[in-house]
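Newbie here. two chains, one complex. Structure please?
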Amino acid sequence: MPSSAIEIENLTKEYPFGFLHLKKKTSLEGLNMQVETGEVFGFIGPNGAGKSTTIKLLMRLIFPTAGSARILGKPISDVEMHREIGYLPEQPYFYDHLTAAEMLGYFARFQDLAAADRKDRVQRMLKKVGLDTAHKIQLRKYSKGMLQRVGLAQAILHDPKVVILDEPMSGLDPLGRREVRDIILELKRDGKTVMFSTHILSDAEMLCDRVGVIVGGRLRGVGAPGTLVDMKTQGMEILFELRGASNAPLLSKATRTGACYRLHVAEEELYAAIEQLRGAGARILSVSQVKATLEEFFLNLVGADRAQASAVEVSGK
Amino acid sequence: MRRAGVVALNTFREAVRDRVLYSLVFFALLMMAAAVAVGQVSIGIEQTVIVSLGLSAISVIGVLISVFIGVALVSKEMDKRTLYALLAKPVRRWEFLLGKFGGLVLTLAVNTAAMALGLLLVMLYVKHSLERSDAVVLVAVYFILLKLALIVALALLFSCFTTPLLAILFTVGLYIVGLYVQELRDLPVEVMSPAMAAFTKWLSRLLPNFENFNVMAMAAHGRAVPGALILQNTLYAVVYCTIVLTAAAVVFSRRNLK
């Protein structure tokens, strides 16, 4: 098996628009990226960044203007390669005249599975995604979250080596999100390669071995969540409780919620701050380190990109 | 090919669950009303009236289903994005198209067969017996089915590259033009310029000739349809459908989904 499960080289997608399609909008610009075998890879970026475009290109739902991609060493144009791939589309919608069991049975028929095996897998998958009690209901009566679950079930039904999920947490309640996280971790334990796109950065931080950050159709960074951001301590946060009035100068810098206050101080000022707060009658509840998060890294990139776009617009270039 | 069969069976199931076969109820009511009315107003021409009315109803109902559901076969899947998960499976786009075509033709075949059976029952009720020559009705129904398959193929082709509304307009337009292809062929080319004559000739060959499939008058009068015409129409429909579906597959295999 190749070390990279997914290899993307210079993948570019332009959409023509306007009268006679003479203008072009670049949705994805020269993407180069690898997803290693057995890793969980998170693809993060704001709306319209190019995440779904990349995934659709990999699935051959749309065709690249330039570049190529290989999955498990085979070019993406090879239809038989899809036996080894599971895919969950963004905001999935399925044949609403079918029940969940019928829909999974239908998709299983394309995987050359024996009839008994198909039935068994369908039952197991429905149980795995928590739909075993609703399997006889037509999909037209399913909620968005239930459709997401059935979509996940069809993606992993045939035990694929590579699972590609487009916004798998979208539309799910906290319980559903946790179940999807558990399924992704289970896939990783089974040695599967998982690539998923998400807006929810905490999920990416929690699940991913590596993440790729894409903004404005360009890849801005790839690496482990901890290496992408500056993990040095950026200060200390003191959480304290204070009842009654006080004139301590530090109180003006703290954020108040009821009787609780949250105060950010530099690391070297921590002990002096604690002394001052205790002197004012505060009860210290907790002290923790403040580190840069993936979210801050991501927001900085998006902010810089928008600032650049505005500058170009203002200068008329 | 097996994968196309799986898609076809799902398409058939979808049509059944979307109550397409409810058209049979309309047909049954129409035929019952005709059977009662014909006994009171027609003397000696019961068969002609019943067969003409029955075949016309089978044709109109079939054409409506072929055009509207034929166009929706692909456009609905693209619009609702049900196609995404399917094309991520080991399925080629042409297999998907062929399956959708096969599924709707199967639906039409079941629908048409049921209506044909209803027509024969009404004929039996009106005439009190069926004769060997009445088998021509079945040939006429078979020709209608061939015509419907051709319409489905055209609807599928148009829906692969344009909006559903335009696809409906193109399909209906081509169907109407196709009913008058013989008139185009009969135009006096000797009075035309050579270029116009050549253009008219090629156009009349290129357009689908739907009038070929109309043997309603022969069926209404119990006249036998020549075996050569059955063979010719079958070959014509198969070849024309193959060409149209191949064109649809070429267009669809290059299409970017939304």
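Moderator note: The longest helix of chain A spans residues 294-315. The interface with chain B takes residues 56, 59-63, 79-83, 85-89, 91-95, 97-98, 106-107, 109-111, 151, 154-155 of chain A (CB under 8 Å). Thread marked as resolved.
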